[in-house]
Amino acid sequence: MTSASARRAYALHTQPPGYADHKADHLARLHKIEGQVRGISRMVTDDRYCIDVLTQITAAIRALQEVALGLLDDHVRGCVTHAARTDPAQAEEKYTELSDTLRRALRV
Fold this sequence. Notes:
DNA binding; Methane Monooxygenase Hydroxylase, Chain G, domain 1; single chain; Metal_Tscrpt_repr_sf
């Protein structure tokens, strides 16, 4: 990492993350999902019906997607908007980062 990129990375991390205002909500959802996944593991251990297990896996995936969408919304409203208002170069980086992230997410 060059010294300029190191300074930029440090500056980016000195501000609270875009999800700071919703951190407790995101963590609560993630803890519920964690319990849901443990429940799925118990279902497999208990030899539950395949379709029932798959239904629960689908629900867990959907719950994770909702957390991801919440984090994405927070990122756009916080980090990207802040960059767009304060630093055109940083804004371009954020737009590229956002585009790359969406491209990876939509490959599902």
